[in-house]
Specification:
The complex is a heterodimer of chains A (about 160) and B (about 250).
Chain A lengths: L15 H21 L4 H14 L4 H33 L6 H29 L9 H10 L3 H4 L9
Chain B lengths: L1 H24 L5 H23 L2 E2 L6 H12 L8 E5 L6 E4 L3 E5 H6 L3 H16 L5 H13 L6 H10 L4 H17 L5 H13 L5 H4 L4 H9 L14 H6 L2
Parallel strand pairs in B: 2-4
Antiparallel strand pairs in B: 1-2, 3-4
The chains are: A mainly alpha (about 160), B alpha+beta (about 250).
């Protein structure tokens, strides 16, 4: 099994356009946040679309798009959980307990952390730098930069005979 | 790399669960306090509404009517829900369920009922709405705002408009009807009593009465209740229904 990784591009090798695309992956969230409230799922859909649009660009852009998308997944799930839990109060009974309040705090903290890290990552991306989130950074690096054998196949056109 | 990924994943999971569990045991806000505040507000809305609309509570010994309504309320009970039954002096043929587990019967609908069993059917239908928590948050919010404004010029008639126009969906009405059928059967009353009431109301008025306006198709509804064979109820009451009606 190959453990080779593609070389990471350095800031001086990255054109301004690519840096902006990479930064856009994080700022995309702010634009979709306004449209998405109170439906956190819209942010996620926007991030998936952004990743698919940019996945054929350079690995640097792909890495930042994927990191933004993957880190958004748990936050979106936490937010969705909060919305469902809160709706159940109105539908069923007002069972307001400490477990819910603590979950609310965890969700707020997760959102704040996500927001802070995203801004930091966007700034770094604009400077042409890599920025690794805990877990999601390594996971994105693994997916984007790892050399896979199938990618190495060279397809050639041949005559019919 | 895989090991590092797992390590990071575990760190995140422990962080998430750790913070959650920490705040469960060391809460910043006491959930009991929040609950009490919410309940207090709900009660406050209820009290304001009752005062403003001049609803009279059943179970009171002041009049024959309220005593008899109290008796009917005790008959139509449900272990899962505690409700209050009120009388409103409105001529409109209507009855409605309100947030805070309140059922209001207008003078109009009481006068339409030839027997207490018909009124029991109406109460059971409204209890169905309460039991299944059919009230929309929108109604609660609109009511709260209207009640807040009540001191500054908003009138009781505006609130009545909100109450009577806040129709439940067709599905909810069907559910409440099914509950009424179940409840009437439990009490040994034929659901056909309600069909009789609806027919009278329909014949009497050129327009569809308010009580039926928001409900499933009129004919559909009458035929649903008419399917049950009519049998005279064996229930006995301490009051004379005709006298009660005459007192109105």
């Amino acid at each position: 099994m190959s453990t080779d990784y593609y070389p990471i591009q350095q800031p001086e090798d990255l054109p301004a356009r690519e840096r902006e695309d990479a930064m856009g992956a994080y700022f995309m969230m702010f634009a979709s946040l306004a449209a998405g409230l109170p439906l956190p799922i819209i942010n996620l859909i926007a991030a998936i679309i952004y990743y698919h649009v940019n996945k054929h660009k350079s690995r640097f852009v792909r890495f930042h798009s994927l990191q933004s998308l993957l880190s958004q997944l748990p936050v979106s799930l936490l937010n969705a959980g909060l919305v469902v839990w809160a709706i159940s109060f109105f539908k069923y009974d007002f069972n307001f307990n400490n477990t819910f309040l603590s979950y609310l705090i965890v969700v707020i903290l997760a959102n704040l952390l996500y927001l802070g890290f995203s801004i930091a990552a966007a700034i770094k991306a604009r400077q042409g730098l890599m920025y690794y989130f805990l877990f999601f950074g390594k996971l994105s690096y693994e997916i984007v930069y790892k050399v896979r054998e199938e990618e190495e196949k060279i397809y050639r056109n041949n005559p019919p005979i | 790399m895989k090991k590092r990924l797992w390590r990071d994943f575990l760190i995140l999971l422990v962080l998430f669960l750790g913070v959650w569990i920490f705040f469960v045991y060391f809460p910043i806000v006491d959930s009991e306090e929040v609950k009490v505040t919410y309940k207090y507000k709900e009660n406050e809305i209820k009290q304001k509404l009752i005062e403003l609309m001049d609803f009279k509570q059943s179970d009171s010994d002041t009049t024959q009517l309220l005593r008899s309504l109290g008796e009917l309320k005790h008959l139509v009970s449900d272990n899962d829900i505690k409700y209050e039954l009120y009388y409103s002096d409105s001529r409109e043929i209507n009855a409605y369920a309100l947030p805070g587990n309140i059922i209001v019967l207008n003078r109009g609908i009481i006068l339409e009922c030839d027997t207490p069993e018909e009124l029991i059917g109406v109460i059971a239908h409204e209890l169905g709405h309460l039991k299944m928590k059919h009230h929309s948050d929108q109604l609660i919010t609109t009511l709260s705002i209207e009640l807040l404004l009540a001191g500054s010029g908003s009138t009781a008639s505006e609130i009545t408009k909100i109450l009577t126009q806040s129709a439940f969906s067709r599905e909810m009405e069907t559910e409440a009807d099914d509950y009424a059928i179940k409840k009437m059967k439990e009490l040994g009353i034929s659901p056909n009593y309600l069909a009789k009431l609806f027919k009278k109301m329909y014949k009497k008025s050129d327009m569809i009465p308010e009580f039926l306006n928001s409900h499933p198709g009129m004919n559909e509804r009458i035929s649903k209740f008419s399917k049950f064979q009519f049998e005279e109820s064996k229930l006995t009451y301490t009051f004379d229904w005709l006298r009660v009606k005459n007192s109105l």
